[in-house]
Amino acid sequence: MTAMIDLDLSPERAEELVVRAQEAFETAVDGLRDAVREETLDTPEFLYTGALRAADGALGALEIEVAQLSEQFGPGPFQRSVFHD
């Protein structure tokens, strides 16, 4: 399974976005029981390949969360997607 998350950066959500010197996103991949991977990204997308999933031992359903990071406030609200095999 390959999962790709695109953040909603539409004008309707502009009030939730914080101006930063550098774009960054915090991503967390959770299995049924434990977090299996956390990454800080410099683009608003994350490609979780089969090879990464195998290396993480991620089996079954996965929950992927993404939040835009602010240098001043830390992570914003997380967007969550659940993926099933």
Fold and architecture overview:
By secondary structure, the protein is mostly beta strands. The protein is 8% helix and 44% strand. The protein has one helix spanning 50-56; strands spanning 3-6, 25-30, 35-41, 45-48, 62-70, 74-75, 79-83. The strands form two sheets. Strands 2, 3, 5, 6 and 7 form a five-stranded antiparallel beta sheet that branches. Strands 1-4 form a two-stranded antiparallel ribbon. The protein is elongated, with a radius of gyration of 13 Å. 11% of the residues are buried. The model has no long low-confidence stretch (mean pLDDT 76).
What share of the residues does DSSP label as strand, in percent?
Answer: 35-45%
Derived from helix and strand composition plus strand pairing, the structural class reads mainly beta
Distance between the termini: 7 Å
- Count every helix, treating DSSP H or I runs of 4 or more residues as helices: 1
* Mean pLDDT metric: 76
| Assembly status | single chain
Q: Please bin the fraction of helical residues.
A: under 10%
Per DSSP E runs of 2 or more residues, the count of β-strands stands at 7
Query: What Rg, in angstroms, do the CA atoms define?
Result: 13 Å
| Largest sheet features | 5 strands, antiparallel
Query: Uncertain spans, ≥5 residues at pLDDT below 50?
Result: none
Helices and strands, in order, run as EEEEHEEE
Identify the overall geometry: elongated
How would you summarize this macromolecular structure in one to three sentences?
The protein is mainly beta. The protein has one helix at residues 50-56, and strands spanning 3-6, 25-30, 35-41, 45-48, 62-70, 74-75, 79-83. Strands 2, 3, 5, 6 and 7 form a five-stranded antiparallel beta sheet that branches.
